[in-house]
Amino acid sequence: MDEPRYCYRHPDRETGLSCSECGRPICYECMTPAPVGLRCPEHSGKPQGIRKVTVPAQRAVTGIGSTRPNVVTLTLIGVNVAVYLAELAAGGSVNGVANYLFNHGALFASGVYTQGSIATLPAHATAPGYHMVGLAHGEWWRMLSAAFLHYGPFHLAINMYSLYFAGSLLEQVIGRWRFALLYFGSGIAGSAGAIWLSPNSVTVGASGAIFGILGGLFVLERQRHIATGGQVAGLIVLNLVFTFALSNISVGGHIGGLIAGIGLMWLLLRFRRSTAYSILSTAGVIAVSIVVAYLQVRNYQ
């Protein structure tokens, strides 16, 4: 039986990791991921502490750095807030419903709903003159537009809070354009999941894309590109508990986004040296999502 090995910087920590340059044992906190193997602090040539979680991993995965690493995250937050303000400006209540943007952007599968046939719509959607046409009548842009609509200020605030912290970290690690690919791919997959499990429910919100971000971080955590001590896995479990425990939450949207985020992150890492394959991988996930949604809505003509 091999003798236990301990980190050379933290003698109280047993470890099975070692620096690929000098061979010294290192613990999870001291390691720095590299394109091939791991590095100890003396051989990493990169910052330690909190920045070690993001900067070295970003360069290992993408080979690039950034002076403003979360610009896409901030842009997405700005767009979501702007859309909500536009909903308020377009009329309706503070919840942002019963206006042109909501009527033409919210997600659901069924056919035409008008003022005279709104029995199956949620109570907040039953405004005079209400009119919606679902995916079954060709409005497939709803699979994307619904991810930028929110039901009220609290819904918007909690999603934007999550997007800021999780999105900023993932964008630093994998880079701007890969982060954008994963976000949009996961958002559309979340819409597909919502349609599959609850086709007649009106669904809005960025949570499918946010679950995709968590899925991406989970893959990075499992493959040791970031050192988070299992916090991402715990956060996913906690959010899934809330998803199933609380009402008025799109279970399909969250599950669909999470699955897509995990799959896309694995593909983006697999093809990190090929821009074309990364884009094709995302396009493939989106195509599968549309097929899944179509199989559900084809009977709702």
Describe the global form: elongated
Overall domain count = 2
Which strand order do you get reading across the main beta sheet?
1-2
Number of strands: 6
Largest sheet: 2 strands, antiparallel
> What would CATH call the class of the largest domain?
Mainly Alpha
Give, in order, the helices and strands: EEEEHHHHEEHHHHHHH
Radius of gyration: 22 Å
Q: List segments where confidence is low: pLDDT < 50 over at least 5 consecutive residues.
A: 47-67, 115-129
- Kindly identify the CATH topology of the largest domain: Rhomboid-like fold
The fraction of residues assigned to DSSP E strands is under 5%
Q: CATH homologous superfamily of the largest domain?
A: Rhomboid-like
The end-to-end distance, rounded to whole angstroms, is: 67 Å
Q: Average the pLDDT over all residues and give the rounded result.
A: 81
Walk me through this protein's architecture:
- The structure is a single chain.
- It is built from 11 helices and 6 strands.
- The protein is mainly α and about 300 residues long.
- The relative contact order is 0.12.
- The chain has a two-stranded antiparallel ribbon with strand order 1-2. Strands 3-4 form a two-stranded antiparallel ribbon.
- Helix 7 packs antiparallel against helix 10 (about 250-270), helix 7 (about 175-195) runs parallel beside helix 11 (about 275-295) and helix 8 crosses helix 10.
- Residues about 45-65 and about 115-130 have low confidence and may be disordered.
- The protein has helices at about 40-45, 55-60, 70-90, 100-105, 140-145, 150-175, 175-195, 205-220, 230-245, 250-270, 275-295, and strands spanning about 15-20, 25, 30-35, 40, 110-115, 130-135.
